[in-house]
Design a protein that fits this description.
Elements lengths: L4 H14 L2 E9 L9 H15 L3 H12 L3 E8 L2 H4 L5 H18 L3 E8 L6 H16 L3 E9 L3 E3 H17 L11 E5 L20 E8 L1 H11 L4 H30 L2 E9 L9 H7 L10 H19 L8 E2 L7 H8 L5 H7 L7 E7 L4 H18 L3 E8 L7 E3 L6 E3 L9 H4 L4 E2 L9
Helix pairs in contact: 2-5, 3-9, 5-6, 6-7, 7-14, 8-9, 8-10, 9-11
Length: 453
């Protein structure tokens, strides 16, 4: 692909002044051929395949960073959902696999490794149950391993047994990492309509429809879009959408260039560009600030959902014009602890859990990196998960919940995770009981929207 001098100069300005970066280069690796009835052999094959395919990933990414002058923040690997290739494993054996994944991640030097996952939207196998039960132990004993569980799809409905189980799993994960404010939960996502090619953690895995190995790129530029919106002043919504769309086009072009170059040097297929505006705690790198630049006094006030809908749609339209391979989640993330503007909005009372839930109808994912009181019950967490899943199922979109019940902390307290995970005030939760509802069990049937054949 050709890149003009003007595009190069614009990109340099975006990088130096507006926090533009490649948020992640993620190599997806299929582990389907690692399945083995002998546990030792299975474990060895997993380690050997990851370290073979991804041995040069970090080096190539670092080289591209220097050559193109574009920061590449994270280098990551995603693998086939482990529950699919280790069906015969016990809970203890699954934990050992997680430790093997951690060792492989250390060996190749990546930031995170995703795929400690199960797909249970229509029910469980024995392997699914064992992997899910192992999640709290796996995440408490590893730093880089990320886990996800898909409990719902538009075609199947919502597995409410899975929602309730995941409420308990999240609580247990928080307890086992209580010395670090429940940080294990920051590496655990519960999905509806999970995508198979998402390069962002903690929800990334290498889907069963994916090739042997692939390079997926996640591009992020909230600061660039923020600058664009501020420059427009009082422009009408049509002009605003057009400007964001053009900015998204430029960002995506840069992501495609990096992705295709990386895939060529690594000798694997190029997959997708995920243009998700992923914020960081850094000032000027906030989704909330973009919405406020549109004219909202504070993110969370009336009009916030409409502003986010405009932003999300314009990003996707611009990205789709820049590459034929937009994938993953692509849109705007709203992780509270990772966005300085969101943090401020929650702290001053402008942004509530209910408003965040409404915003997930039109954003990229869902209730993300939200710190809640440690006393909140597993049943209440399950009900929050069910609400998010319902939004995804009915609207035929991906939704997710990454909730952190912080042990020994309550509303008014703060939690400090550090780095990209940031910090957040503990957000209030509705105090009324949902336990009888979530304990009904079974499957919430697929909606009429599922009948598309």
């Amino acid at each position: 692909m050709s890149v003009s001098l003007q595009e190069i100069l614009e990109t340099i300005q975006m990088v130096e002044l507006e926090n533009l970066d490649i948020r992640t280069i993620t190599m997806g690796i299929s582990l389907r051929d690692c399945a083995d009835s002998n546990f030792a052999s299975l474990n060895r094959k997993i380690y050997d395949k990851i370290t073979f395919y991804a041995q040069d990933l970090v080096k190539v990414a670092n080289d591209l960073e220097k050559e193109f002058g574009i920061p590449i923040i994270n280098k990551r690997v995603s693998v086939t959902p482990i529950a699919l290739i280790a069906e015969n494993c016990t809970v203890d054996e699954f934990v050992k696999i997680a430790e093997t994944l951690e060792n492989a991640a250390d060996q190749i030097g990546v930031n995170f490794l995703g795929g400690y996952s199960a797909l249970v939207h229509k029910g469980f196998t024995k392997g699914d149950i064992n992997l899910i039960e192992s999640i709290p132990y796996a995440l408490s004993r590893t730093e880089k391993v990320c886990s996800s569980v898909n409990i719902a799809t538009t075609k199947t409905g919502i597995n409410m047994d899975a929602a309730l189980i995941m409420g308990h799993i999240i609580k247990k994960t928080a307890e086992l990492t209580a010395d670090r404010d429940g940080i294990g939960c920051a590496k655990l996502v519960v999905f509806a309509n999970v995508p198979e090619d998402n390069p962002f953690m903690a929800g990334a895995f290498h889907g069963i429809g994916e090739p042997e190995s692939v390079i997926n790129v996640g591009v992020s530029g909230p600061g660039v879009v923020h600058t664009t919106v501020k420059k427009l002043g009082n422009a009408d919504f049509g002009e605003l959408a057009e400007a964001v769309k053009k900015t998204a086009f430029k960002i995506t072009r840069m992501g495609e260039l990096i992705g295709r170059t990386a895939s060529k040097r690594l000798g694997v297929r190029f997959g997708i560009v995920d243009l998700s505006l992923a914020p960081t705690p850094a000032v000027g790198d906030s989704i909330a600030n973009i919405l406020e630049a549109m004219g909202l006094e504070r993110c969370g006030t009336h009009g916030t959902t409409a502003a986010l809908a405009l932003l999300n749609d314009a990003i996707k339209k611009g990205g789709a014009m820049a590459t034929s391979y937009v994938g993953g989640l692509s849109g705007a993330f709203i992780p509270v602890s990772e966005d300085s503007g969101m943090i401020e909005a929650v702290a001053c009372g402008a942004l509530s859990l209910d408003k965040l839930e409404a915003m997930t109808c039109v954003c990229s994912v869902g209730l993300d990196m939200i710190a809640i009181p440690g006393r909140v019950s597993a049943e209440t967490i399950a009900a929050i998960i069910a609400d998010e899943a319902a939004i995804g199922v009915i609207n035929k979109k991906t939704t997710a919940a990454r909730l952190i019940p912080v042990p020994n902390k309550d509303v008014g307290d703060w939690v400090e995770f550090g780095g990209l995970l940031g910090r957040a005030p503990i957000i209030p939760i509705n105090s009324y009981d949902s336990s009888k509802f979530v304990k009904r069990g079974g499957q919430i049937p697929a909606p009429i929207q599922s009948l598309t054949n």
